[in-house]
Structure formats: structure tokens, C-alpha cells
Amino acid sequence: MISWFKPSNDTVAVYCKVFPHNNFGESAQFLFEAMREAQEFYPNKRRLLYLEIKGHRNNRDEFDADMFELQKDFLLGFLAPFVTEIHGPLVSVRNSNPQENDFPPALTVQNVRNN
Question: For residue 65, what pLDDT is reported?
């Protein structure tokens, strides 16, 4: 996984890329840490997340379960309050509320899927 920051006066754009060998857990942890670092290095600036996902497609060209869950449940269900905008392969959204800047100290990812 890679990420980089592009700051401007009141905004920091965070670009993250997930590769075929990255699973849900490590991808979620990475995105969480990238957003925490953006807050640490660029305090209280508007955060824009740009996510690119390489691979992780099934034979119908749909995202596999890990990357669908990452986008639907993790980005939209958990991380959205901590950013101003999210731009990913499935969706682009703007947070209608002020972004939260007080990140939890850590992220715990549990596997609850029955494989």
C-alpha cells in the first residue's frame, strides 16, 4: 500500500492505493493510519481521501468481498466522519457535517466472516 499527502492552504488531499495482495484488515488499518497522520501533520485541515484499488475483482468484474466491505462498511460506515470528502472506485461522497478531528487512539479489525 502507498499513500502520499498534497497539502494546500486549508486542505490536505490523501491518496491511497490498495494492491492485489492487500486484504481488508491491512487496508483498513492503513487507511486509518493515513488519516491519523494527515491530522497529525496537517492539524484540522479539511481531509480529502482518494482511494485506488488495483485488482480485487471477480470474474464479473465486481469487487471481491474484502474491497466491497472496505468501501461500503469501513469508508462509509466508519471513516466518513473523519474526512470532508471520499473519492473511491464505487462512490464519491462529501461529509455534510464538519469533519471530526479527534481520532480514536487505535483501530481494531476483527474477522467475523464465516469462510
Answer: 94
Q: Which residues of the chain fall short of a pLDDT of 70?
A: 111-115
For 4, residues 6+ apart whose C-beta sits below 8 A from its C-beta are 14, 15
How far apart (Å, rounded) are the C-alpha atoms in residues 68 and 76? Answer: 11
User: What gap in Å lies between CA 25 and CA 48, rounded to an integer?
Assistant: 22
**Strand order across the beta sheet in which 11-18 lies:** 2-7, 11-18, 46-53, 85-87, 92-94
Listed by start position, the domains of the chain span 25-103
Question: 93, 80, 88: which is closest to 51 by C-alpha?
Answer: 88
